Amino acid sequence: MASNNVNVAELKEKMNFWSDNFIIRDVCRLVVVSGLVFFVIFVVFFNDPSCSASGIFSNLKISPSSTQPVASSPDVYPLNVSHLAFGLQGSEKTYHFRKAYLEAWWRPNKTRGYVYLDTAPTGDLLPWSPNSPQYRINDDLSKLLQEIRPRSALMPRMVHGILELFREEHEGIKWIIMGDDDTMFFVDNLIDVLSKYDHTKYYYIGYPSEFVLSNFWFNFNQAFGGGGIILSYPLAKALVRDMERCLRTYSNLSADLMTMACLADIGANLTPLKGVHQNDLRGDYSGFLSSHPKDLVLSIHHWDVLDPIFPKMDRFQAAQHLMKAGNVDQSRLFQQTICHHRETSWTFSISWGYSAHVYEKVMARSWLMTPIETFRGWGDSNSPPLFMFNTRRPFGDPCEAPHVFFFESIEKTSTNEIITIYARSAPRNLLPCAASGNHSAEFVSKIRVFSSATRRPEVHRAECCDVVSVKSSGKAEVKLRECKIDEIIA
Ligand SMILES: *[C@@H]1O[C@H](CO)[C@@H](O)[C@H](O)[C@H]1NC(C)=O
Ligand SMILES: *[C@@H]1O[C@H](CO)[C@@H](O)[C@H](O)[C@H]1NC(C)=O
Ligand SMILES: *[C@@H]1O[C@H](CO)[C@@H](O)[C@H](O)[C@H]1NC(C)=O
Ligand SMILES: *[C@@H]1O[C@H](CO)[C@@H](O)[C@H](O)[C@H]1NC(C)=O
Asked: Could you tell me if 245 and 363 lie in one domain?
């Protein structure tokens, strides 16, 4: 086994977003909480007779009937940002350096929800930034903890955060979205994707980890809390109602696994969406983001663990930079579009708003949609299977390794097109690809990509593109368009 000499408990523990700060390290090396998030909330209530679930909920004024109006009266409003409530799990210690990640995507006075802290903010968190979600401090649960005696006190804290979210944000809410304070969410895409699901039914949405062992350690059928756990409102309500049994039965599981178990007992199973990224990965994430699944990106977790996704930037700058494109067209963000320049036998692969790759050989989409393995798994092992997807290792091969460009700027033309510009990150330092005629692409320094200003939320088929020009000055132009009916991308 790959993990023979790996301390599994330690690996799992570090996956937890709070690993450096919390008692979990001492109390429960085996409990795993991987970024998990939320949910532990419920735990809290259960074992405390003075704090029964019904009592809690009547305090919250979430009567059974008040959760159903969407079902009983047809809702003429398409899903919009006011129907989503975010619960972002943070801590006083982490939020000082993580708040910039949330602020990059949070829309003040539009997005609803809170960042949950363990203690009151101090120092440079005050005065509280108007660009951050408002904060809430979790209630003191010590009494309850004494009674429940879970292996990890962290879980009740997270559960309590969920209660606060319910208490304060139930008016008109259709979806509850739990994440971490180092999770980037893509709100426009969430709205587009969740619109396809009936929020009056029971939906449990998320995605397993990209790292195989995370799913083995926890569960292949769970939504990981850092990538995000998305619950339709009535399902969240049902979970709350069942909380006491749930917590009594499963309180020693990780928070996201407990969520899965309790939802399973209610009758709900995971609806997996590939745009959710737990990312129990380390290092350079660019290979994955340059061959993103053909699904709208919904979240990116472990922003604080992965290298900054753009070269020469810190993580905060990278988050802000990404949202320059993400605020214009999230539907195309990271969507991979491939076309060929037949004169030189080059292949262009554009990950919109993020990167452009140029290969000195005609390559098929079937091959390029496989991510380049620039990143590592969570542990030390190098023995596959590491990832839940296949990877390429083109390093050092002039016919397989791309010239790499990263998103630099975005502008709108007078003809209502979007231009994104990608700049070379570094010389490739390889000879030209001889097999396809020694047409070096080393001189290409910038790639301008034209795309429609119309968003494309239905990713039924990838887009195609044309290489409009390659100038000796080093500028290349590519134009995205719908594929022709019989077009083959190869
Ligand atoms: C969102 O929908 C609600 C009804 O649920 C409506 O009152 C509100 O105006 C809509 N907001 C936007 C920004 O469209
Ligand atoms: C949000 O709303 C509050 C109160 O209406 C207002 O004072 C504040 O300026 C708004 N913040 C932003 C960033 O628009
Ligand atoms: C959880 O683990 C603790 C410590 O091992 C134990 O005392 C407690 O009974 C367990 N709870 C459940 C519900 O199994
Ligand atoms: C490419 O260059 C190499 C070395 O310079 C040479 O041996 C080879 O014949 C060239 N290939 C083509 C197709 O011109």
From this structure: no
